[in-house]
Amino acid sequence: MGITDFLLNLVGITKVYRLRRKYDRVREKADKIRNRLIRVQILSVLDSVEQPLEMLEEQKLTRYERKRLVLYVESGIEKAKRMLERKEELVKNLYNKQRV
Fold first, then answer.
1. Is 38 exposed, middle or buried (0-12, 13-18, 19+ CB in 10 A)?
2. What is the domain range of residue 18?
């Protein structure tokens, strides 16, 4: 293993650790939501991202697979963040759907 392989591997690992930290922060914020309907929606988005994130942490992957999974995980985390920011709108929409 050359020095360049070591450095590239180190960069990949730090990217995965950053994604894990983002995931954990968003998960904690979602767990604090009192409204069960919104919490379930956000947690379902985060649950769909958890398995690929574990694959990134544990398995040896090619650069292509790693990039594809990183993009998928990043988009899922961002989607959950946006849902957290718009939770008031989600509450209104959910209650309007229930009334119909």
1. buried
2. 3-99
